[in-house]
């Protein structure tokens, strides 16, 4: 009889406790998150190897509750210039970046709001012949360099239409050690400025 009473009391205590336990809060809320998608072509300007580099860039991914964005970004230098310190003026800096990029939006339903983007990825650099010398019997230098980079930033975003946003921002690129001909990591690290349009279902 005592054993049955103990079992009943323990069961009642467990049921009571389970009813009073508060549901854990999560960053996406306790409801199923709304998932959207987007594509964001943009132009980035940065000083790299002593000159102003123009990078054609694209970012595509998913949004969660219109606050968190996560995707992949790719960019490359489109203007041809010889890095400072390079003696062969027939060569230009060929540099590309690929990264995982995520972003948090403050008050995204407001017409104008702030975003915090962060990139973590890898970069590749080498020297190639400028277009004006491609017909000559010249050889490109061998070798290249890979490096890791981290770039936090801050962006101002404007909701133009339901499916269209305009953004402008700045960031700072931090890289791992680089040693390639006359280039070092100091030639690649620095501020970046970008602008573009984000198209999607948010």
What does it look like?
This protein has two helices and ten strands. It has an eight-stranded antiparallel beta barrel. The protein has a two-stranded antiparallel sheet with strand order 8-9. The longest helix is centred in the first third of the chain and has 19 residues, at 2-20. With 202 residues, it is mainly beta. The chain has one domain: Porin, CATH 2.40.160. β6 and β7 form a beta hairpin.
Search tags:
single chain; mainly beta; Porin; two-stranded antiparallel sheet; 10 strands; 11% helix; 58% strand; elongated
**Alpha plus pi helix count:** 2
> How large, in whole angstroms, is the Cα Rg?
26 Å
Order of helices and strands: HEEEEEEEEEHE
Distance between the termini: 62 Å
The tally of beta strands, per DSSP, is 10
How many independent structural domains?
1
> How much helix, percentage-wise, in residues?
10-25%
CATH architecture descriptor text: Beta Barrel
What ranges have pLDDT less than 50 throughout 5 or more consecutive residues?
A: none
Strand count, sense and closure of the main sheet?
8 strands, antiparallel, barrel
For the record, the CATH class is Mainly Beta
Structural class: mainly beta
Spatial order of strands in the largest sheet: 1-2-3-4-5-6-7-10
Strand content: over 45%
Which geometry do the CA atoms define? Answer: elongated
The CATH topology, please?
Porin
Average per-residue pLDDT, rounded, comes to 87
